[in-house]
Amino acid sequence: MHLFLALCILAVNPSICKGKDEKKCDVVPKNNYIEVGSDINITCLTCSHGEIYWTLDTSRLNSSHTVLSLRNFTHQSATVQCHSTDSQQVIGGTTINTYSKPCNISCIWHQLDQKTESQPDQFTCKWDHQIDPKLDVNYTVLHSSAQREICKTRQTTCTVEGVITNMLSDIIITVRAKTADWEVDSDTREFQPAHIRKMIPPHLIVTSFADHLLVEWKRELIKKKCRCEVKYNETKLNKALNREQHGNMTIEHVESCSHYTVSVRCALLEPAPWSDWSQEKTVLTKLNKNHVRLRLWRKVAEPQKNGVRKVHAMWKEIPSTCRGTFTYTIEPTLYKEAMMGGNYTETLCGESGCDVEVNQDAHRINLNMFHNETLLVVNAVHVPAIGESLPQVTDIQTSALEGVILVTWKAPIQPVSGYMIDWTHDGNQYNWKETNYTNATLSGLLDKKPYNVTVTPLFVDKTGHGTQALQICSRVGGPGNVTIHINKTNAKNALVSWDVKSQEECSGDVVKYIVFYRKLDRLELWLNVTVIGTEQSISLEDLLPDTQYEFYVKATAATGTTKSTEMFFKTKRFGRWFITTLVVCGGVVIILVLSLGLGCAISWKKFREKPVPNPGCSSLALWSPSEEGTGSIWQFNNPSESICDRVYTEESQKTSTSPLGSGLNPNPAFYQTDEYIDPDMASAPETDPEERLKPAKTQHRSSPNDSIEPLLPENSPCSPYRSQTSVENPGKRPNKQNKHSPVKQPDRKTPVMVYVTLDMFEQNQCK
């Protein structure tokens, strides 16, 4: 155990000794604060790392020396690092922070009481300081060369209360800024007391007249020259005052019956600061007769059947701020008689309009305005006669932009004194203006309203005919509200439609519709299809069966877009083609089933109605061997009958494979058929071959030897069947099975006896 400890001590001791001898690798000095624009040297302790390079923040500097000199450093904060060129490792680094000194120092010498001028009792200084707002900086204001502290603050302004001594000589001010890491003084600033003294506001008096305002003010510091500034309705006028002089100013070109707000301020000669603004005075100007502009105009309605026309006279009313009582009267006169003078009936009117009736002749409408029962203004307007040939403007054009309507037209050939433009949006409330140009701008319009604009040329004592432009909107709004509908849904498509209804009179024409749709899943992306503005329906294709979808429609016009609310629909499980195919196939199957059933019914009916062969109508015949196998036997077959309708005798049934029974060739070379042979036929002499070739005669036996026995029970009243035997008594016939074996064909055929059915379907003909 002791040996192990000794070895550990020996292993660690060299490294400890080595660490004591090595130099520390770093960059000095650390975390410096320097003034903006100053210089600094930074040293890198390389510890034999070879060549180095420097970086400033993320930029590499063009220096490989161990001492880095930074000149005119202006960064607010930056990190400088020393790197090894060989290993690219950072040897050390430091952070450099800068600070600035206070600047733009300004001071004023003023008094707290702003009503009576006296010795100033406050001294306030302000300055600028560009620093990090997070820093905690303490400011100290130092006065004169002795650097006496007069104010401390953490803000960039400081006020000293009370009278400061030595204010008769120049004042030297320095501002010191101090933090936990640095301290800096501003540049000294020298002020003269007269240049920083602030006057108190003057006392203001304002008097209003019909055509001007008289502004007067009094200042307390009367023994010194000063400059003053008068402000009224955002307008400023300057005036200089000498010693022992109070101020006054006349404000001309004021509007009648208008309010004016006036204030004034003064200061000693520059660069002394301005006093505060005096208390504002608001006055109302009186009515100036020369400023009254009624701007009389008229709108003439279409004539009635008797030629009477209704004329709506309108004028600009006197502002309500004008004091006194105002009355208006209208006096319509014939144009010819008005030029010669005369008395006519007057109509008392309201404040801004009046209606009178005139005939088809030209008239002159006179407006009289009385102020406090004294005639103040007389104005007149001309009304042309019906059909009177008078000039009018042509090619009138209108355009709208951002709520303003621009009107242009071509002047008539005759010289004019001006043009009157009137416009209305409802036919009741009119606006009008006079111009000497062939264009006019109409402003102050209601938003998104259609306007009718009329231009009328004016002459010295007459008016021409008015020309009305096409109706135009002050501003065109969006395309209106979009309402969507679901017309029809199938398995893979859906027919949707929409309509646009605008609550505004001026809505933009739709350029296109965009239909957005997607599966009812917020993770799905919206699909869209674009439709031209004249279409209002579309079929959404390639949908999934039995799936819910959501969709909406966005209408786009040149003036904006509107969007409908979202609506949902679900596609059907099966499509129309599937249902159609299913119906068609079902119909075909039903038709086939009905046809098959009908066929079976008909066949069953035929089967039930088919007559059963009557063996009672059969007979027997003998055939010679020579006739066997010939085609004469087919004479007894009914071609229309089925082979199933034949009735065979007992022998034929027993030998169903014989040639006669099957209707095949009876003489195969390799078959021999054993038949029952009548002994009498066998013992009879051989007949002539020609006789044998003659067909045998059918013999109908009706003799008593024929054994006719009912096949039905004996107690049956009748039976259509009878037992038939041959003419000869054949005796007992053995019952043999047909044996088929290839044998040699015999040379001579022996006669055989067979049963043949004849006329078995004839009714009531049995003999």
UniProtKB/TrEMBL annotation:
Keywords in alphabetical order, please. Answer: Disulfide bond, Glycoprotein, Membrane, Receptor, Signal, Transmembrane, Transmembrane helix
Membrane topology term:
Single-pass type I membrane protein
Q: Keyword Cell cycle: yes or no?
A: no
Membrane-spanning residues: 577-602
| UniProt GO cellular component terms | external side of plasma membrane
Give the compositionally biased regions (Basic residues).
733-742
**Which stretches does the entry tag as region Disordered?**
647-751
Q: What is its main location?
A: membrane
What name does the UniProt record give this protein?
Answer: Interleukin-31 receptor subunit alpha-like isoform X2
